Amino acid sequence: MELQFFKDFDFTDFWNESTYSVRDYIEPFPEDDLIASIEEELGYKLPASYIELMRLQNGGLVDKSCFPTSEETSWADDHMAITGIMGIGREKTYSIGGELGSQFMIEEWGYPAIGIYICDCPSAGHDMVLLDYSNCGKDGEPEVVHIDQEDDYKKTFLAKDFETFIKGLKEEDEFDNE
């Protein structure tokens, strides 16, 4: 597969290949009809960079799990952390159409219905990463933001697009200041 995005990105040591990841996150590679039905179900066009990554590996836990921030988050004063990236599908618990996917977070946890929730965080649902379509419309290129349920759904800007977000993820030990 010829990459349009992530051409210069090294995925060595990016994904965490645990049995938990296989059991709860990693979906089969998404076909066009599944992508279209998920987009229709969620009401948004998925970014091409997200689809491309999901065609390399469709969801999973990550070892590069921290994203630097310019403001404090519920996780730390200089970054936020994710557990995994939700794949395109409905079969796994942590896929965007799955049991604990995007719609569940909106309907059951009261998260704002302004996009697609694509990453869970170590807080077990108390914060999430969102493809935010607020500024671009349902067919545009969404920004990536952190939403903190514990802080009245505070939105913290992370990246201008999904590719920038993925390329900006760092290993946790890069933030250990102790």
TrEMBL record:
Pfam families: SUKH_6 (PF14568). SUPFAM superfamilies: SMI1/KNR4-like. SMART domains: SMI1_KNR4. Residues 28-168 form the Knr4/Smi1-like domain. InterPro entries: Knr4/Smi1-like_dom (IPR018958), Knr4/Smi1-like_sf (IPR037883). This is SMI1-KNR4 cell-wall.
